[in-house]
Specification:
- The protein has three helices and no strands.
- The protein is an all-alpha fold.
- The protein is rod-shaped and about 115 Å long.
- Keywords: Membrane, Transmembrane, Transmembrane helix.
- It holds the Pfam family DUF4190.
- This is Large-conductance mechanosensitive channel.
Amino acid sequence: MSENNTAQPVYVVPPAGAKTNMLAIVSLVTSIIGLGIVGIITGHLGLSQIRKTGEQGSALAIAGLIIGYLEVIAVVIFIIIFFVMFAIAGNHSYRMSY
């Protein structure tokens, strides 16, 4: 009998990685493009799903939430400043002298 000493190739299949939660991705993307409210809503929904299913993406959801909340705060501050400036300008009467 002859021995066959040729090595057989070993195929290694990588383990299937945990799926990334789609709402977490949507949260981050929408917050980055300026849709803060959508980013906040999808971030909270994504975190809820991640807790239930064990999917990946909690960091993405949290980043989307942080960016979304910062956008909403910035918009509120801008609106307040805008109205205060117009209120101040409206209280001053300007007289034009010809």
